[in-house]
Each structure stands twice: as structure tokens, then as C-alpha cells.
Amino acid sequence: RRVHGRPLRFDWYQNEDSVFINVYAKEQSAETAPVQFSERSVTVSARAADGTTVTMNFGPLTSSIVPSDSRANYLRTKIEIRLLKAAKGLNWEVLEGDTSAVRSADPIADSVPPAYPSSSRKRKDWNELDKVGKEEKDETGDPLNRLFQQIYAGASEDTRRAMMKSFVESNGTVLSTNWSEVGAKTVEGTPPEGMVMKSWVDESLGRPT
Questions:
Q1: How far apart are CA 74 and CA 71, in angstroms?
Q2: Residue 63: strand, helix, or coil
Q3: 19: closest CA among 98, 81, 107?
């Protein structure tokens, strides 16, 4: 990854056919933050809070994408970049660099669960969620957790994205299945009564803009 200027905070996740990169920069547009796609890289130039321009180049990507069908969506607090995978059904273990860090989707699954968002080079995913859901056929365990597994395993792609996005962005305090509602905004956390929500900051990347 090449960066000109102070790096902006980002995270990434994926589903069966796409990789999503969230770059956290407020009030951006196609004019202030153009995104360029190539087969093995994506570059975004955004205006930072101090007025300077930050350019971040992600690449070489772990696997090829389809530039013509990749898109950038400009939200209030971030830029959501969708990269269409050239080879659908492959899970990327990392975002960049290691072309061997891919694996085939589970052939018995309808689709690959989205990987948990992370700015780390090592991928975290929700594959264990489906595994646990398939293995827990008895009546033991937490009924609420079992219900969540059943909903996720049988959900549509948009419902899975909504569940994943709302859960992650709210730090585990909100779970929504409505993609049309949560897809266009950042889901704010709602801590239990008597508790205070605190945000995580990677000091090496600087505080969110």
C-alpha cells in the first residue's frame, strides 16, 4: 500500500462476489475524492480535515477485480468502495500483496459469509457462524444465539450485509436486517443503560477525520 499524506482510517470486508473498502473521510464527493480502479489496484484521493489531500493506493490486490463494474459510494462519514471480484467464490485472506492468500468458498454453502471488517492485513471472517449454526442441531446453548445463526444462515445477501454492517459499526449494540435503512448511513452505537460508548482509534493511522 502506498500513501501520500497522513493515512486515513479504513477497514474492509467481503462477500462472495465483492470486496468492500471503507475509507473514513467526512463530506466527500466524486469531485473531492476521485477513486480510480485497475485490475489489481484501487486509488483514492481525499481531502483530509486539515485541508490537505491524502492519496491512498491499495495494491497489488490479492486477486484481480473488474474495474468497469467497481464503484465508489460517498456517504456522510466515509467512502464505501465496492470492488467486483474477477473470480467470484474466492475468499481473500488478506487485502493486498499475497496472491496465494485466497481459498475457495465452501461448496455446500449458498454463498460465502462476509468477512469481518478490519484494517489488519490478516482477514477475520464469519465462517464460524455458519459452521456453528449447522453443528448445533440439538436444543442446547443460548436460544438467542441459535436464532441469530438461523436468521443469518438463511438470509439474503442484502440482509447479511445489513446485519454485518449494523453490528460492526455499532460495536455490537445494534443488529438490523434492513439494508435500505443502514446501507446509506453509519449505524450509531446504542449502549445499554448506564454504560458509555467508547470508540476505537488506531493511533498509528491517526484519529478519524
A1: 10
A2: coil
A3: 81
Tell if the pTM clears 0.85, that is, is over it.
no
Alpha helices in the chain (DSSP H): 127-135, 143-153, 157-169, 179-182
Going by C-alpha positions, the residue among 168, 163, 141, 166 that lies closest to residue 152 is: 163
Q: What share of the chain is helix, strand, coil (3-state, %, to 5)?
A: 20, 25, 55
Instruction: Give the pLDDT confidence of 83-139 residue by residue, as tens digits.
Output: 999 998 889 989 998 777 788 765 444 444 555 555 545 554 555 555 555 555 445
For residue 192, cis peptide bond before it (omega within 30 degrees of 0): no
Reported as half-sphere exposure (CB side, CA atoms, 13 A), residue 163 has a value of: 20
Q: How many whole angstroms from its chain centre is CA 15?
A: 9
Please, are residues 9 and 208 in contact by the beta-carbon 8 Å criterion?
yes
Q: How far apart are CA 6 and CA 174, in angstroms?
A: 31
Beta pairing class for 41-47 and 79-84: unpaired
**80 touches 24 (CB < 8 A):** no
Q: Is residue 45 a contact partner of residue 62, using CB atoms and an 8 Å limit?
A: no
C-alpha grid cell, residue 60: 497489488
Cell match 500513501: residue?
Answer: 3
Q: How far is CA 188 from CA 45, 75, 194, in A?
A: 26, 14, 17
